[in-house]
Design a protein that fits this description.
two-stranded antiparallel ribbon, 13 strands, alpha/beta, single chain, globular
């Protein structure tokens, strides 16, 4: 492997843009997703997608690109103002409701692009080339929800500012779970127990007994502008999908620095039905309108069971 290239030029530009893939069919959530995009399924009263956009906006992102598919116009519409509803709420004096529906449109400037054929995460990211316009880009998967009391993205942006290249969000999982994830191999001498690790290679869903580590890639990435050039040349892999992991590996093997931030905070996998329900329960306990009553009921219900 060639020596690591030092960060230079635009690689250390501020991370002001984010891409969120939202083109999936959400078949695990049928029948709801027959007509409602999975990204708009509510966590009590707020869709997971709004939480993810708010996370990006809270860490300096000003523009967000939603990669959507046909039939998912509601995803972009959610981030537009509804002046008629605002007028109704204003006339009623419902200031809390008014603030709630104005929040999403105020978070960031929202852009949309349609992914005509679902060809994998790499292809979804490739749709952001014109949007990125030569700048680095954060990619946030809407199924991965980071608790707003924890701050993964800000740590990743700090690492990117120092090193450039690629920065990945990681979690340490049990070895028997690693085959469900993309996995990283560390640069020799990098401390696997540290908060920031230097990465030599990436492996997609390795068998547990041969995995190079138990550090799994989750849905947070910061990518340099060169990722788009590499994605254009990346051939589809299994299932005919363009794998983002393959493009990142290419850059790593060319000497582009790759670092991971190991996240040890609270995270919700809202793409899994059981984990989604768990997230609803946990966020309901913190909800300012119903949290106290819900928690009291939950304790009573669990003790009664």
């Amino acid at each position: 492997m060639p020596p690591r290239q030092p960060p230079h030029g635009a690689a250390n530009a501020p991370v002001r843009k984010a891409l969120i893939p939202a083109a999936g069919r959400g078949t695990r959530f049928l029948p709801l997703t027959k007509s409602v995009p999975k990204e708009l399924a509510p966590l009590v009263t707020t869709p997971a997608l709004e939480y993810v956009v708010a996370e990006a906006a809270g860490h300096g992102v000003t523009d967000v690109l939603l990669v959507v598919s046909q039939g998912k116009a509601a995803v972009g519409e959610y981030f537009q103002r509804n002046l008629e509803l605002e007028a109704v709420l204003e006339a009623k004096g419902d200031l809390a409701g008014l603030a709630a529906i104005r929040r999403a449109p105020s978070l960031a400037t929202i852009h949309e692009v349609e992914q005509l054929t679902p060809r994998g995460l790499g292809d979804a990211v490739a749709h952001g080339e014109d949007f990125a316009a030569g700048e680095p880009i954060a990619v946030l998967l809407p199924d991965d929800l980071i608790d707003d009391r924890d701050h993964l993205l800000s740590a990743m942006i700090d690492v990117f500012a120092e090193h450039g290249g690629i920065v990945l969000g990681l979690i340490d999982v049990a070895r028997e779970e690693i085959s469900k994830y993309g996995c990283v191999s560390l640069v020799e001498g990098s401390d696997a127990s540290g908060d920031v690790v230097a990465i030599a290679d990436l492996v997609e869903k390795p068998p547990a007994d041969t995995a190079p580590s138990t550090l799994a890639i989750i849905g947070r990435y910061i990518l340099p502008p060169r990722i788009f050039e590499v994605l254009r040349a990346t051939q589809p892999g299994s299932g005919g999908e363009v794998q983002l992991t393959d493009a990142m590996r290419t850059l790593a093997h060319e000497g582009v620095p790759v670092h991971g931030v190991v996240f040890r905070g609270r995270r919700y996998d809202t793409g899994d039905r059981l984990e989604y329900v768990k997230a609803v329960v946990q966020l309901a306990q913190r909800h300012p309108g119903i949290g106290e009553e819900f928690t009291a009921w939950l304790r009573e219900y669990v003790s009664g069971s």
